[in-house]
Amino acid sequence: MKILIVGGVAGGAGCAARLRRNDENAQIILFEKGEFISFANCGLPYYIGQVITDKAELQLQTPEAFHARFNVDVRVCQEVTAVDSASKVVTVLNHATGETYTESYDKLVLSPGASPIRPPFPGIEKNHVFTLRNIPDTYAIYDYIEQARPRTAAVIGAGFIGLEMAENLADRGLAVSIVEAAPHVMAPLDTDMAHMVHNRIRAAGMGLYIDRKCAGFTENGVLLEGGDVVPADMVILSIGVRPETRFLQDSGVELGARGEILVDEQLRTSVPDIFALGDAATVRNLVSGRQQVIPLAGPANKQARIVADVICGKDARYKGSIGTSVMKFFEMTVATAGEKEESLKAAGTPYRKTFTVSSSHAGYYPGGTQMIVKLLYSPEGRVLGAQIVGGEGVDKRIDTLAVAIRFGMTVSDLAEMELAYAPPFSSAKDPVNMAGFVAENVLAGTMTPFFVDEIDAIPENAVRLDVRNPEELATLGSIPGFVNIPLNQLRSRLDEVDLTRPVYVTCQVGLRGYVAARILAQHGAQVYNLSGGYTLYASRMKDLAGQGETADKNCAACGMQTKG
Questions:
Q1: Which of 80, 301, 439, 464 is a Cys-bridge partner for 482, taking CB atoms 3.0 to 4.6 Å apart?
Q2: CATH number of the domain at 2-114+242-311, out of 3.50.50.60, 3.50.30.20, 1.10.10.350, 3.30.40.10?
Q3: 74 Cβ contact partners less than 8 Å away, ≥ 6 residues apart
Q4: Which of 42, 214, 312, 558 is catalytic?
């Protein structure tokens, strides 16, 4: 059997290795249009930031080593430019020689990946505008920083790569500004969770321009729609990717609206004996059921194994993905899995949500950090999505919640999970358990939450109650209009609360508010507890204040916020 593989990074190389483990006699040819295969593309920003200092560490395999281990004919700098599915032949351009030739196949695997979108912005040739996809891109950015010594940089697009690049450029000493056309950074997050990331961006001294589109470039700046100029001696363009599938236009392989390759559960395309995987292929979203592109390394590697197994006669299937992802941003960790609220709302999917604020480990053990967990679930309790922003331990919790989402578990399952506990690592009630407990309370009707963005809609006749201690209000602040009665005094001061009116309660994170709500409810009141408490409120207000300053209180010379 002769198998051709288009694309030699994670998916293509992984498929080739699995094919060889399955079949020692197959003829396997791997085409990669670049000069590197199987490189650590997720690690590229960290080489630019000098966290990874050895170039060789970026290459997981060289063509020579890959051939020696797996007996695969690796052809780098050779690009498949066309596929004739009727004759089962591909056309190949050898970039080293300029020669064009054809190669026949029995099976064809497509793993071409996706390339960064680079629109023809006015003036783009005037500035030093880079995209980041491969090792040559990485070297070009690194070398420019070393040789030109730029002082300012702008990152256009605040997804994973954009924010990772912003951090690493800042670590190199550049004054960085971030421009994002959407209302918030990081598309997998909802706005209420993005507030914390926005605040951390500003705390790092970076300029943040959200809901602002790039209109063009000058020699030392980025033009925004509306006329503002963001200072930039160099620019990282990170506004999304597009499947690299132009070579399939006349192949008969069915493509989606954006050029993505449509596949079934066995990753077969619409043409017999042609398979597709990775960033250019669609997968089923296990929560929504939609077919979509989820460009992540983990799913691509799993798909590579399945394609190899199917080619070799096994009944393997790729059931789908939930888009689990995690990102480091300075000391902050941001992680998501499953659907977000904005997507559920857009699809008309019924859902409930709650926020919990937990420590990464036992409170009495030093060094803990706070994490905020947003849990989305159906009215019946099935877990639909999760987002976590915090520090230490976020990765562990998102992985646990990802398992729950993938296997259709409920909030009661989260509450019942037996998770590892020792004071340096967790609490006896793990943050995952706590998210389950709170969601169970909501579904059982023992707590009715309200949310930070609903504060302005609280009825005028409602009682607003803050049950924190007075010193907390003095130190941390309070929500205007909320009257303070500390939780431990509530029972003795019930006569101060008009129980015939709706009562809206807040505390710092929501736990004391829940206890207060139970007290008040059992005395006949209709009570609402602020989910996430004053912590989420303060985060939102700080972000909104920062957005107000961005428009009129920035230093024109450097884009940094000024006091005033």
A1: 464
A2: 3.50.50.60
A3: 8, 30, 32, 37, 63, 66, 67
A4: 42
